Structures are given as C-alpha cells and as structure tokens.
Amino acid sequence: MPLMPKRIKHRKQMRGKIRGNATRGNTVAFGEFGLQVMEPGWITARQIEAGRIAATHYLHREGKVYIRIFPHKPVSGKPLETRMGKGKGETKHWVACVKPGTVLFEIGGVPEDLAKNAFRRVAHKMPFRCRLIHRKHSL
Amino acid sequence: MATMKAAKRTEVGTNKVKQLRKAGNIPGIIYGHGIDPQAVTISEHEVELAMQHGDRLLELDVDGEIENVLIKALQYDTFGQIILHVDFNRVDLDERVEVTATITLTGTPQGVKDGGVLQQSVSSIHIECPVQNIPEEIKIMVTEMKMDDRMNLGDIELPEGITLLDDAEALLCNVHELAEEEEATTEEGEDADAPEVIGERNVESDTEE
Q1: At a CB cut-off of 8 Å and minimum separation 6, what does B81 contact?
Q2: What is the ipTM of this complex?
Q3: Of A2, A36, B83, B159, which sees the most CB atoms within 10 A?
C-alpha cells in the first residue's frame, strides 16, 4: 500500500514552489549508504513504494532499507471526460516535495557493491537524477 | 601525527569567506583550553587528505606557532561534497578525549554460511581514549557467530586504554534467519482509505441526529 497521511488538516492543497537546496534530511543518518536527489521535484507515493520494493527484492531481505521521505502533499485531478469548471477535483494521489540534496532511501547492513546495485535499480524508478552517497567520517 | 600549515584569518563574513573558498582555502577556528578562539585559514586539499587518511590529531603550524589540535567538526555543503568550515579543538598530548569510532565487522559468520543474515545495528561507538591513540576504526571479527547469536557493545574487545561510553547492553550485531516476504500490497483502495480531515464534521452522523 503506498504511503499516505492518516490525518490531514486540509483536503486539498495548492501546488506551491520548490526553491533552493535541501538543508535538512541531506545526510546519511540511519544506514551506511544513501540515495541522494540532484534535482527538485515531486515524487509520488507509488514511486516511493516502487523504489522500496526494488531495493528489498534485490537485497533478498538482507540488511535494512530506510525511507527518508513521506508523501504529505495531496495532488488533485479531474475525472476523464469532465467539462472544466465545477471546482477543484478530488485528490488523486499523494506526493513528497523534494529539494536537491534530499536523501530518499538509505541502506544499512550490506556490503557496498550490493547497496550500489540496489540503488541503481531504485534510481531507475525515480523521476530525478540521483546518486549514491556514503555516511560521513565519524569525528 | 600529520602536520598542516594554517594562517591567521582576519576575513570574516559571508562574502570574504566565499572568496577564500574560491581560492582553494577553508575557513576554520581553533578553540579550547580556556584560550581565546583563533580564526584560521587552511588549505582545502590538506584537510581532505587528512580526512581520507583518517587523521584526527594534527600539528597545526599557525604562522609559526605550533598547536596540537583535534578535528572537532566539519561543515559540508548541501550535497555533502565540499568542506565549508572546520573546527579544531586544542589538546594536550597526554590528554584523554571523547571521540566517535567507526566499527567494521570482518569475516563471514558461521550463521550466514548456514543461511542466516548478519545485521549490524550500530555503525559507530563513542569512546574515551588517549589523544595519541585514537583508533581509525575498530575491527571486530564475527566469524564465530552462529545462527541467533547476538553481540552487544559490551562484548567488543577494545584496545588497552580505550573506554566505551555507550550502553554496554546495546545491540551491535546479530545473526538471524531471513524474514518472511511482505504481503503483496493492496492496490486501488485509496478512496476507502482516504485520510481523516481534522476538524471536519461528519455529515452522515449529523443527518442521523
């Protein structure tokens, strides 16, 4: 089941704009390797789920996959063959807004080559350019 | 102990520091031991090399004055690629310091050969050690671990003079059987599972009343 909020304050939202780079959620925090976004955009709940499945299937349930984003934003759409007007459409799906630098997924407990291949498969399912990053040196 | 050259820095503020970075230098600061902090400039390349080699204790030559310092903190850009600023902490060579050490598990556990999975819960630990003996990483041999074995932080054999600061009962790694495959996702049920709107009145219950 794709991710979606349990409770919301408003049923519909405006589109908004994505400005600047990520200043939070841009480091590897839980695992050892992360998949970092290089472009801004929306990622749907289905795309997040597709990425999670691609990673877990490739890893054969070894290690641990962390999802670092959540689709908080409802996107509405009108039904097919409907005339314009009559107000804003109903919510069709949910998206997460991501800024460049955001870490989408993390993997821990597996060797680097395995994580790299898993992330390559995940990156194919993402709507932006992504790259692999490592956990920083501990000081 | 690596040696590095630094220069006292008078340039402060965003624009001046940006010019420093364009020239291949990094702004930094030295503090600690009750002495006034000293702003410095240091070569970006040298800091990167020190980080790649795992050097933490440095002999810093600040315009002829030698200071023993520990790399305390590093600031990176959004993408975690470029070092923006570095913090140095003054230390005495006979001092004990609190640092974080990376843990590396080596070998293939017996339990993994029998079809299990090795799961590492902690990738680094907090330790107290003499400043001259900061380990680059702590290697732990896990070849003896069998299925359903677990290793706690307290089980790590630390080199002499190093004290663990974390909870000794915390899990470091364990070998377990593969988890069951997750159930297939239920698709197209989005309308039924529409989220609850906070503060919205339930129309059906109102009409019943």
Answers
A1: none
A2: 0.81
A3: A36
